[in-house]
Amino acid sequence: MAYEEKLYAIREVSEITGVKPVTLRAWQRRYNLVQPQRTEKGHRLYTDLDIQTIRQIQNWLLKGVSIGKVSQLLQGALLEPGELTAAQTELEECEALLSALAQLNRGKAESVISTVMKEYPLDIVERQFLLPVIDAVDKVKGPLRSLQKGLLQSIMLTKLSGIMESENKAAHKGRCLVVSFDPVGSVLAWLWALTWAEQGYNVTFLDGVEDMTGLQEHEFLAQYSAVALFSHRSLAENQVQTLHQLVSRFGEQLFLSDVLQTLTQQ
């Protein structure tokens, strides 16, 4: 009896690996990475070996290697001495984005951000691209800092909201309420919300919420399969008490960002 190889649609591979379909397509088209089979209608079908290759790519990216160099590494090439150490903190595109922000060049900044968002998984985008850029902009002296931060925020929120809208249309895991207690327009909060959309939830995002007590007895929360709370900063004592109560009420249905998780353990 012949062995029939299991094949996976691109959405299935995305769920298994956590890599967005748009990123898998970009890896294939631009870098010739992971060449799936095709159905008669042109739909991509991936093998277990393809998924293994995707895992290898993810491991290299986590080590700070740019996507452009991964193809050579998969073929057995070696990094130059010190090359990996130099790459571990940020993507090469950080410099290009910072230059565009300094010039208030929206078109160039949008182009850099769009490319990175397509070519890298969301965790890499946050850790090796956005966080270094945000940190660098925060160090800009004088009134120019505010201008550059405003441009970055404007572009990122437009981009992230567009991606979330697209992901919501493909949702299949039920509804997720994501609540941010950071100031309105926090890029990190939007990234957190997008992670839930990428996991297959239809996300309702509440931005800039100042008081979480309204969540305690809201009668319509039962319509959500999951509730995810985000804050990148500490909360007032009364809000921390409410947070503990929410944890008790929702149990495994409630998910917390790292800062909030730490507050519940104190």
Automatic annotation (TrEMBL):
Cited CDD domains: HTH_MlrA-CarA
Highest taxon listed in the record's lineage: Bacteria
UniProt keyword Cytoplasm, yes or no: no
Domain HTH merR-type: 7-76
SMART domains attached to this UniProt entry: HTH_MERR (SM00422)
UniProtKB keywords: DNA-binding, Transcription, Transcription regulation
InterPro entries found in the cross-reference section: DNA-bd_dom_put_sf (IPR009061), MerR-type_HTH_dom (IPR000551), MerR_fam (IPR047057)
GO molecular function, one term: DNA-binding transcription factor activity
Name of this chain's protein: MerR family transcriptional regulator
